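Researcher: Let's do a round of design. I'm pasting the structure tokens now; please hold your answer until I've finished.
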């Protein structure tokens, strides 16, 4: 959703994983796992090749977060989780069975589990726990914790429930091994993605708080939970600040995925309600040490404040090779207004990307043309080969153009382009039963106006939406933007209470079970799902299953091409743009490895605080702190 646009493009984002595993390794214990080939680190993985294994620990990392928070339970629909907690994965508090790689796509390395295996028919997966794994209270992480976590997350987390839809149960087969059973064979991703399970402390959640009240994992809470990861909550001010402290005896500190990483002693997150105030906080120093920038205007024109000129703030661009997300206006088909494909296509034509890129974004952006942008999974040209074979089964249920025309979005490259594309939009609306009367687009039968609201929560939404709104008004469509606070926004998005939002959906190089959460008919009715457009299409459902049960990589690529093409030609969203770079500005208090992971662009967890630099900055800018 929109909230996620400012988050770093990182492999730590709750990435969707799926693909093919090699049957030749069935029933053999595996450590590092990959869905798209062998990991470059192999079985002798010591540490990531970009980290400084001797990076010093210490110092405080300060960060500003927009909005507020009211819960330390990120796995339920209710509440706004505090910074450091995530709805998918473990965040700063919990470890997962395996940890997703920071510099390779669809690859994981051991964490709580030191190995896993699966049978040749992919009907189950067994994970073996590292005997050293423990909670912050010193108790061991057990198979009971794993099984309970699986049950709780599948029952209460919208993302995990669909991610593990085909996982029926988990049973302990020894004091260190948990076997997960699947209700369908041949789902080649499931053995791998079980490793993404966040493991929660059963004994803590089933215990009582300081007042003797029994805890409830299905409800929000502001009692700091027991964790297992490198950090724990040290202090907080409800809604305004949370401070995390590094655990000095963290059990996994010497594992390959952790060496040279998680170096800050303290991570302090300060909440600020609006973007302008957050910007001012960064320029003054003391509250925000690293700023991931997503504003083209700000990147181009605002970085001239005194600390930049003095060399105390560094502005740096990191190229990325990870898949690009689909950022778009998500048209909520739960609203009858957007039920007609012709209408949705008509809404696509007034979006003038080229003028926006030139006048607002300084030419930094590129138009998004695929839901799988930046990968071999993106469709192109006309369907052929295996992809065509897949689509032929649904020919009578698909737009005829899908088979005869290459999908192309409008390009505003000439002065005449606006008139051309707005005329096409009006023609499409007319075919769908809408006409212009008195300058307003109205239903030809009822006279009802074509009117909708774009829901947003920050200034960037205003920048993105305004040009589209202006062009829509030229064809009589009454579109407006409503900005609300972040908490209200999250709640409304979770409950699909909007006409249109500016959303974002990230993909991996190996799509799989998470596609159900994005596109399936079931997810359309599940609060908290990421089917923002409310898609309910049997063809899409069938293609999602085709991806999940792909027999090999070639089959997966063909099936994903087919899904991409069907999604595009149904115009469920109005695509916007992407940048294949990560923009970071940071106060010069860090030690940074010379190399950073190109897949995610930068791994801030591999940075460390330089005490001398930190002290010098604190003295120089203490009046601003």
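Researcher: That's everything. Go ahead.
Model: Designed sequence:
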């Amino acid at each position: 959703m929109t909230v996620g646009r400012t988050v770093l493009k990182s492999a730590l984002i709750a990435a969707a994983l799926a693909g093919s595993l090699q049957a030749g390794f069935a029933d053999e214990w595996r450590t590092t796992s990959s869905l798209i080939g062998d990991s470059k680190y192999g079985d002798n993985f010591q540490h990531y090749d970009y980290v400084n294994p001797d990076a010093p620990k210490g110092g405080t990392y300060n960060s500003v977060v927009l909005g507020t928070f009211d819960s330390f339970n990120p796995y339920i629909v209710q509440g706004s989780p505090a910074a450091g907690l995530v709805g998918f994965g473990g965040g700063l508090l919990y470890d997962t069975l395996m940890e997703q790689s920071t510099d390779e796509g669809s690859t994981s390395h051991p964490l709580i589990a030191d190995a896993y295996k699966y049978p040749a028919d992919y009907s189950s997966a067994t994970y073996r726990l590292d005997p050293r794994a423990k909670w912050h209270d010193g108790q061991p992480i057990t198979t009971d914790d794993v099984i309970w976590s699986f049950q709780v997350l599948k029952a209460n987390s919208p993302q995990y429930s669909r991610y593990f839809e085909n996982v029926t149960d988990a049973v302990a087969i020894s004091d260190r091994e948990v076997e997960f059973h699947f209700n369908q064979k041949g789902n080649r991703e499931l053995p791998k993605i079980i490793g993404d399970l966040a493991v929660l402390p059963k004994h803590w959640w089933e215990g009582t708080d300081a007042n003797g009240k029994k805890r409830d994992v299905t409800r929000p809470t502001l009692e700091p939970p027991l964790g297992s990861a490198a950090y724990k909550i040290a202090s907080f001010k409800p809604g305004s600040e949370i401070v995390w402290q590094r655990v000095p005896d963290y059990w996994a500190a010497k594992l390959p995925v952790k060496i040279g990483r998680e170096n800050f002693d303290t991570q302090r997150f300060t909440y600020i309600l609006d973007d302008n105030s957050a910007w001012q906080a960064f320029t003054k120093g003391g509250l925000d040490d690293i700023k991931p920038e997503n504003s083209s205007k700000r990147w181009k024109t605002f970085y001239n404040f005194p600390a930049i000129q003095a060399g105390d703030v560094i502005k740096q661009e990191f190229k990325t090779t990870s898949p690009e997300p689909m950022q778009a206006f998500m048209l909520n088909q739960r609203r009858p207004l957007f039920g007609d494909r012709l209408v949705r296509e008509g809404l696509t034509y007034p979006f003038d990307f080229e003028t926006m890129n030139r006048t607002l974004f300084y030419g930094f952006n590129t138009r998004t043309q695929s839901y799988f942008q930046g990968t071999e999974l993106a469709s192109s040209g006309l369907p052929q080969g295996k992809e065509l074979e897949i689509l032929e089964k649904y020919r009578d249920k698909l737009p005829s153009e899908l088979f005869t025309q290459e999908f192309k979005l409008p390009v505003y490259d000439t002065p005449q382009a606006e008139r051309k594309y707005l005329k096409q939009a009006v023609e499409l609306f007319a075919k769908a039963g809408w006409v212009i009367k008195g300058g307003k687009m109205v239903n030809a039968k009822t006279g009802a106006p074509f009117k909708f609201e774009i829901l947003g929560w920050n200034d960037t939404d205003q920048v993105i939406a305004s040009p589209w709104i202006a062009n829509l008004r030229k064809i009589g469509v009454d579109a407006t933007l409503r900005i609300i606070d972040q908490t209200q926004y999250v709640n409304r998005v979770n409950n699909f209470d909007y006409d249109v939002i500016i959303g974002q959906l990230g993909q991996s190089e190996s799509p799989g079970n998470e596609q159900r959460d994005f596109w399936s008919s079931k997810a359309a009715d599940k609060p908290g799902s990421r089917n923002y457009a409310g898609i309910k299409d049997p063809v899409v459902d069938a293609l999602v299953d085709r991806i999940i049960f792909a027999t090999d990589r070639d089959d997966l690529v063909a099936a994903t091409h087919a899904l991409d093409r069907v999604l595009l030609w149904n115009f469920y969203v109005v695509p916007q743009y992407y940048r294949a770079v990560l923009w970071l500005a940071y106060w010069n208090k860090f030690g940074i490895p010379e190399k950073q992971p190109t897949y995610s662009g930068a791994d801030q967890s591999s940075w460390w605080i330089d005490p001398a630099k930190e002290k010098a900055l604190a003295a120089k800018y203490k009046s601003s702190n």
